[in-house]
Amino acid sequence: MPLVTPLDSNHDSETKKLAEFFNETLGFCPNSVLTMQHRPAISKAFINLNKAVMANEGRVTSALKRMIAWVSSNATGCRYCQAHAIRAAERYGAEQEQLDNIWEYRTHPAFSEAERAALDFSLQASQVPNGVDAAIKERLYNYWNEGEIVEMLGVISLFGYLNRWNDSMGTSIEDGAVESGNQFLGKHGWEKGKHDGSRY
After folding, report:
1. Carboxymuconolactone decarboxylase-like domain location, by residue (predicted)?
2. For the whole model, what pTM was predicted?
């Protein structure tokens, strides 16, 4: 069981309406959001932030945003968020070669130099101590404008919140996320870990 039990999806009508967003991104409402409903102001603020961060206003595609989220979650070790991010990347049209080789983004030909710069930014920004430096900035500015960099850091920061929430909560992972985790990440040792519903 997780640290705190998720509430029913009908617990808060405003959260339920906002959470329809996740039916597109994941195909289900995440247990993390259902748990946040214990304080509906948090669940509603989180969903609205998620929608704002994931809106496309430049050339950072929905698929790339989810791959940025995966790299960030991989750096922090949150298996729940790794599976969610790779599932959303698939649902938003990431190329099969990229999904199959996300672990090798630095060298695999399926990734462009612009994508590598974005994903390296995610990796460095998600580490403690933070690894963003002048070299990362220079690479980013070779391919992306300031608004696009803000979008990327929005994703990285959103998943910093989620990584801490879900790893501390021991959020039970949903079947759909498990399927995606096993399909795309399993060959590299991905497993449910503390998110199998039996942590506490």
Report:
1. 40-120
2. 0.95
